[in-house]
Amino acid sequence: MPKLLTINEITQKLDAGTLPTSYIIQSPDTITCEVLIKLLAKFQDNDEMLKFIVQLSKDKSISIRNNKENIALGSLPHFIHAYSSNTLYPENLDKEKQQAILSLFQKMLFSKDQLLYLLQNLSKNNVRDILLQSDCFLMKDLIAICNDVNELSKFHRYTIKLLYHYLNPTRQWNKPLTPYLDMFYFTYRAGHTLGLKNKINIQAKGKTLTLDPEGEFTSVSLKLLMNIIQRYQQIYPNTHFEKIANAIKFADMRMEWDSHDYKEKAAEDYLLRYQTQELAFIATGWTRHTVGIALYGDYLIYCNRGEGCDSRSGCKIFKIKDRNQIDKAFLEKLLTPQKNISEFETLLSTVVDLTSPAAKMKSKPHKYGTCTFVNLKSTIEGMLVLLDAGPNASTNEVWRASQKGRRNYKRFTRFIRDREIDEIIKNMFYARDPELITFYAALVKAIVTQHHGTPRSSYKDNDEVIRAYELFERSTSAVRDILQKDQDFMAIIKNITPTYEKILIDKRVIRCPGIREEIVYSYNHYAHRVVIDNGYMTAINGKATPKMHFSFKQARKMISLVG
Predict the structure, then answer these.
(1) Which of 87, 190, 352, 397 could share a disulfide with 318, CB 3.0–4.6 Å?
(2) Given this model, what pLDDT does residue 221 score?
(3) What is the pLDDT of residues 361-375, one digit of tens each?
């Protein structure tokens, strides 16, 4: 009969090399996570270690204490929660043991309840590494959980972001698989690309969902920026933007999925890229803040429009003191977030003189917690300047390149905002869930309320008036029905209508009133009947479409999507 052993006795027998192959763990007992890790490290045979873990995890009367919390076991998910509460990769365990334990977790097939427990209790990094990089659950269970607002409202917002990107590796214009996750996704998108500060609260099935537009993984912002540039290139082909897109893609491929962290050996890859005179783009920074860095030949770009920034010039270009200082050791430090801005700028000061920029780009501090997007986007202006001047240009040549005007960059930023409105309209069109329709109404209200221009009547204000008015005008009838009941919101629309009409006249924009039809030939030469209402496409071949501005090029795009 197997011998009954306490945790202390098991530890002693491991030290002596006399642990029997068969034994029963005595309970009840409570051990600390530190004691558990030290005990696991004593196993010479990983299979024996895993047998111990499986037996230990089944006992409900054994608890593991960590961070002043006692986690009662009784199942492997509870053990996973306790074991990984500090880190999934304890320093006291060698990599072989770490991987053996992780493989044990990933080989399981968790029930829906177990999956729910793990999603609610694991950190976002552990959700990513244990659950979303293996087949340890049924997809139908995950989708069911993501469509249960009662459960979703208990998740950490970063877990929700992970789940959205896992279930939607590419954004599709169709009925959403997980409408509640869509709410979180579009709040982030609009918050980062258009600028939203206030949280959006949505009532769904008796629960309040709080949607925060601020904060996102750096790797997600990189992907969004890369996608925007690729679409921009389709309309405005430009060799500079092609090189910038390549640099951003290079950075994205060296970041961990949905994180702020770079992969191992990323510094070596960056060093080779820099030494071969290619544009190198780096998203980095310090605790809770991301900035943009670019390296190209003799120059370094530093873009910070947030914490500790220059209130007039967020993006600056500096001459590198000695290119040999851009070595592996420097890059490893640069790719690792520092503790604060002082440590970060001390690091930069080893290779550049931060008091003497070769060029400065005019900008205002960003008002919202969107540094992972805004600072990366603004770095593009500096990269355009350096690509114009060249990697070995003199400081005077760099300065002159920065004075040529901001036309290319400003056209790009305008494209970002206009495209975001289009994305909202396209996806709103497919919303059928009442809560999702309510969400889009709240999102439109938040955007229009914060961005409908000011009395200054600058070009930027005019752009905001156009976007605000047309966002409401292009919204679906279900969304407009909700908005029209809001007197304060409709007062804003009434207020900006004369300004909107005047801007169109000043810009000589011709809007054909009423409904008409056009025959548009697609790329395969088939004829399609397009219905246009007040300048917007509303149907193709009798099939309703999102309200998009009519042009033959835009019509062909929509034909390829809706047929």
Answers:
(1) 352
(2) 87
(3) 888 777 767 788 889
Alpha-carbon gap, residue 91 to 125, rounded angstroms: 17
**How many of the other CB atoms lie within 10 Å of CB of 558?**
21
CB 232 within 8 Å of CB 241: yes
- The whole-number average pLDDT for the span 304-327 is 86
Report the C-alpha gap between 178 and 72 in whole angstroms.
32
Q: Classify residue 396 as exposed, middle or buried by CB count within 10 Å of its CB (0-12, 13-18, 19+).
A: exposed
Tally of residues, the chain: 563
How far apart CA 531 and CA 541 sit, in angstroms, is: 8
Q: The pTM is what?
A: 0.81
CA-wise closest residue to 411 among 531, 539, 267, 235: 235
Q: What are phi and psi of 423, to 5 degrees?
A: -60, -40
Average pLDDT over residues 6-11: 92
| Half-sphere exposure (Cβ direction) of 450: Cα atoms closer than 13 Å | 16
Query: DSSP letters of 32-74?
Result: EHHHHHHHHHT-SSHHHHHHHHHHHHT-TTEEEEETTEEEE-S
CB atoms within 10 A of CB 324: 8
Cα 418 to Cα 430: distance, rounded to the nearest angstrom: 20
Distance CA 529, CA 550 (A): 13
Instruction: Determine the Cα–Cα distance for residues 298 and 549; give it in Å rounded to an integer.
Output: 44
| φ, ψ (nearest 5 deg) of residue 453 | 85, 170
User: Quick one: CA dihedral 430, 434, 435, 438, positive or negative?
Assistant: positive
Q: Which residue matches tokens 């397009």?
A: 530
3-state secondary structure of 393: coil
pLDDT at residue number 389: 94
Find out whether the peptide bond into 28 is cis, omega within 30 degrees of 0: yes
**141 or 403, higher pLDDT:** 141
Q: Does pLDDT of 219 surpass 90? A: no
CB 451 within 8 A of CB 467: yes
Whether 317 and 388 have beta carbons less than 8 Å apart is answered as: no
Cβ contact 98:90 at 8 Å: yes
Highest mean pLDDT among 160-164, 315-319, 542-546: 315-319
What are the E-state strand segments in 102-166? none
| For the ranges 148-162, 235-249, 495-509, the one whose mean pLDDT is highest | 235-249
Please state, as a whole number, how many other Cβ atoms lie within 10 Å of the Cβ of residue 181.
22
Nearest to 443 by CA among 110, 187, 262, 266: 187
pLDDT given for residue 563 in this prediction: 60
CB 299 within 8 A of CB 391: yes
pLDDT band per the 50, 70, 90 thresholds, residue 189: confident
